[in-house]
Structures are given as structure tokens and as C-alpha cells.
């Protein structure tokens, strides 16, 4: 493989890509690693640099699909002798891989080293790396002050610094609004639950009043039909049953008034 031409490497690149499309990730990874072992010693030409970048991106994808994502970053640092001079697209790919699994520590290491390297300030995807790091790593961790510090220390002009400071404040405001919205929703749910309870209680109280009224009417009816025999019984019933119920229902209202 060491004597392969550029065209043969490109043919291998197409084969590796086709294998990924067919979900044959291990086979694709093997091709990528073999080609990278040769190409990393021939990084003198722009064509070779482009091939190395493309093989690296495919290898990172294979590692992700094989759930061997921990191997991706060491491969990149091995090929490029660190992360600081790594092409922006590979840096962005590594960053995305690690923030998707919430490996924020590795994201911090990648971003801080690469973003503060002055040779990367003019890179095509510099702002893309910065944006992804802010939105997907710092913002989810509520590190809004770190966003401001980063924007002031990396390669941005004054206008962009102001833009990112404003962005940090907007993200912080949005986070506060989101928390307030969640609290309001919880309060509304609590009120709805209590409202349901009070509705049931209200119906229950109304039913008890209806039973009491019906009972009184029954007593009145019985008294009218059996004035002599029922009168004494009715008075006794009133004293032992109706009067306690009356006090139970209406006593609190009299006290409150």
C-alpha cells in the first residue's frame, strides 16, 4: 500500500465510503486506518492532506457506529500530532461526537486548545466550532459567564465579541424564562388537582344538605299525620339527631360571623 498512487488512495476512499453505506463499519475502518498509516508520512502535498482529512472523518464515523468513540480522538491526535493544528472540519466532527454523548470534559479540551491557537483564527469553520461549543457544551451546563470569557479571549474582532456577549445573555435569559415557565406549569397542575378535589368535596357537601332537608321533610310529614303518637318521638329525634347535625353544619358559620 505504501506505493499506491493518489488515484488508488481515492479508490480506497470510495470503497470505505461504500462500506459505510452498507453498514459494514469494521471493514471500512480497516481500510481507513491502513491508508492513514501510509498517508501520515506523506503529508507534504495538499492532495495528501485532503485524503488524510477525508479518511479521518470516515474513521471517526466508523468508531461512532461501532460504539468505539473513545478511539476517535486519540487517532486524530496521533495523525496530526495534537489537536491544535487539526483541520477545522475534523475538530468540529470530534466536538459533535463527544457532546452527543455528553462527554463535556473532552469537548472542553478540544475547544480550548483549538480555538486559542492563533493559526486557526482564519480557518473556514472557526465560527462553526465556536458556535457548536457554545450552544451544545457551555449553554447546557449553564456556563454563561464562560461564554463571555471565551468570546473575549479567542480570535474575534470587537463586533463579534459584542455579538457573542449578547448571545450569552440571551441564552441566560431564555434559561431563566424556561425555569419560570416550568414552575408556572407545576403551579397550574397543582391548582387543577386541588380544584378537582374541591369539586368532589362540594358535590359531597351538597348531597349531605339534600339528605338533611329530606330527613326534615319526612319528620314534618310524619308529625302531621300522627300528631299525638309521633310528637314526643319527633322531639326526641330532633334533640338527638337533627340538632347535632344543625350545629355541625351551621355552627362554624355562626362563629365566623
UniProtKB/TrEMBL annotation:
InterPro entries: Pex26. It holds the Pfam family Pex26. The keyword Magnesium does not apply. The chain crosses the membrane at residues 207-224, 230-246. The keyword Transmembrane helix applies. One of its GO terms (molecular function) is protein-containing complex binding. One of its GO terms (biological process) is protein import into peroxisome membrane. Keywords: Membrane, Transmembrane, Transmembrane helix. GO terms for cellular component: peroxisomal membrane. This is DgyrCDS4063.
Amino acid at each position: 500500500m505504501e506505493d499506491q498512487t493518489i488515484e488508488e488512495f481515492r479508490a480506497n476512499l470510495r470503497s470505505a465510503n461504500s462500506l459505510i453505506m452498507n453498514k459494514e463499519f469494521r471493514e471500512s475502518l480497516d481500510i481507513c486506518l491502513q491508508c492513514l498509516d501510509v498517508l501520515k508520512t506523506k503529508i507534504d502535498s495538499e492532495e495528501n492532506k485532503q485524503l488524510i482529512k477525508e479518511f479521518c472523518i470516515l474513521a471517526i464515523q466508523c468508531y461512532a457506529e461501532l460504539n468505539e468513540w473513545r478511539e476517535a480522538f486519540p487517532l486524530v491526535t496521533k495523525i496530526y500530532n495534537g489537536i491544535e493544528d487539526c483541520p477545522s472540519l475534523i475538530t468540529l466532527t470530534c466536538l459533535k461526537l463527544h457532546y452527543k454523548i455528553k462527554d463535556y470534559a473532552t469537548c472542553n479540551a478540544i475547544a480550548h486548545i483549538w480555538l486559542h491557537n492563533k493559526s486557526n483564527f482564519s480557518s473556514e469553520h472557526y465560527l462553526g466550532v465556536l458556535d457548536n461549543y457554545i450552544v451544545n457544551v457551555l449553554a447546557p451546563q449553564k456556563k454563561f459567564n464562560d461564554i463571555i470569557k471565551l468570546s473575549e479571549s479567542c480570535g474575534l474582532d470587537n463586533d463579534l465579541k459584542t455579538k457573542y456577549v449578547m448571545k450569552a445573555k440571551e441564552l441566560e435569559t431564555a434559561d431563566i424564562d424556561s425555569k419560570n415557565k416550568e414552575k408556572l406549569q407545576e403551579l397550574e397542575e397543582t391548582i387543577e388537582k386541588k380544584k378537582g378535589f374541591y369539586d368532589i368535596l362540594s358535590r359531597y357537601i351538597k348531597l349531605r344538605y339534600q339528605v338533611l332537608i329530606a330527613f326534615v321533610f319526612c319528620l314534618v310529614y310524619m308529625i302531621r299525620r300522627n300528631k299525638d303518637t309521633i310528637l314526643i318521638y319527633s322531639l326526641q329525634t330532633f334533640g338527638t339527631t337533627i340538632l347535632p347535625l344543625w350545629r355541625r353544619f351551621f355552627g362554624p358559620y355562626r362563629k365566623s360571623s
